[in-house]
């Protein structure tokens, strides 16, 4: 088994997608939530102008030690500055620990920090898009709302604060080695990207043997 945090541990399909995204993106690239820096270093090694960014000091220490010639900086999505626009932002499994209520604002900030025509590529754990696949979860949520509200169930709120049918598929929390993470239905994430102003260019899903279901979406900030 390859060590997590190395390119050898990444799937060939993911490497091909990220490399294609980078090759087709003009301008500087940001690896947002770069962790130990393997993707940043990989893209820098292929000749791209790329910076890795992560809020975890421990990850940055590992990244700088392992890749001393690559640029890394401290910060998270909330530290993105529209005055410093990027040609492309890679958020590869870096949004999975955000509270779902914070994801719309994070996507909007990414959109604001891309140049016109800039391209964002996000990777995340996928959940089932089908409402019928979640009847027990929906029922549990409705029962909980009824208990909390003293017997009068109120409409649930979507991640962007809008009311929605409790049968609509939403993010699912699950235990993760670092902190609680969330699986997102790809359709729901795509909708949030569009609400943030993005145009969708490409999406894909798959389940590799021994791995959780994966999804990736490439989205563009139109000029």
Would you write up a description of this structure?
This protein has 223 residues and is an alpha/beta fold. The chain folds into 2 domains: 7-129 and 171-220, 3-Layer(aba) Sandwich (Rossmann fold); 131-168, no CATH class. 29% of the residues lie in helices and 27% in strands. The chain has helices at residues 12-23, 38-45, 57-66, 103-112, 135-148, 186-195; strands spanning 29-32, 50-54, 71-74, 86-92, 114-127, 156-157, 163-164, 172-174, 181-185, 199-206, 214-220. Strands 1, 2, 3, 4, 5, 8, 9, 10 and 11 form a 9-stranded mixed sheet that branches. The termini are far apart.
Work out the helix count.
Answer: 6
Measured distance between first and last alpha carbons:
44 Å
Shape: globular
Low-confidence spans: pLDDT under 50, at least 5 residues? 130-166
Report the portion of residues in β strands. Answer: 25-35%
Order of helices and strands: HEHEHEEHEHEEEEHEE
Mean pLDDT: 84
Which fold name fills CATH's third level, the topology of the largest domain? Rossmann fold
CATH class of the largest domain: Alpha Beta
- CATH superfamily (homologous) name of the largest domain: Vaccinia Virus protein VP39
Biggest sheet record: 9 strands, mixed
Domain unit count = 2
Second CATH tier, the architecture of the largest domain: 3-Layer(aba) Sandwich
Helix content: 25-40%
Query: What does the radius of gyration come to?
Result: 18 Å
| Secondary structure: number of strands | 11
InterPro entries: Methyltransf_25, SAM-dependent_MTases_sf
Region (Disordered): 133-176
Domain Methyltransferase: 30-118
Pfam families: Methyltransf_25 (PF13649)
């Amino acid at each position: 088994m390859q060590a997590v945090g190395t390119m050898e541990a990444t799937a060939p399909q993911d490497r091909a997608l990220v490399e294609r995204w980078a090759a087709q993106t003009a301008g500087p690239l940001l690896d947002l939530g770069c962790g130990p820096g393997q993707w940043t270093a990989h893209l820098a090694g292929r000749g791209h102008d790329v910076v890795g960014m992560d809020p975890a000091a421990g990850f940055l220490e590992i990244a700088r030690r392992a890749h001393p010639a690559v640029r890394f900086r401290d910060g998270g999505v909330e530290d993105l500055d529209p005055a410093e626009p990027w040609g492309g932002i890679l958020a590869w499994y870096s949004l999975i620990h955000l509270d779902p209520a914070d994801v719309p604002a994070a996507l909007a900030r990414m959109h604001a920090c891309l140049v016109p025509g800039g391209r964002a590529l996000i990777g995340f754990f996928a959940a089932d898009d089908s409402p019928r696949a979640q009847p027990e979860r929906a029922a549990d949520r409705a029962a909980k709302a009824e208990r909390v509200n003293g017997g009068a169930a109120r409409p649930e709120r979507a991640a962007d604060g809008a009311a929605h049918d409790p049968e609509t598929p939403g993010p699912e929390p699950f235990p993760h080695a670092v902190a609680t993470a969330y699986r997102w239905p790809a359709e729901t994430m795509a909708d949030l990207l569009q609400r943030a102003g993005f145009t969708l260019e490409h999406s894909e899903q798959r389940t590799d043997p021994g791995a959780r279901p994966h999804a990736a979406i490439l989205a563009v900030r139109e000029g």
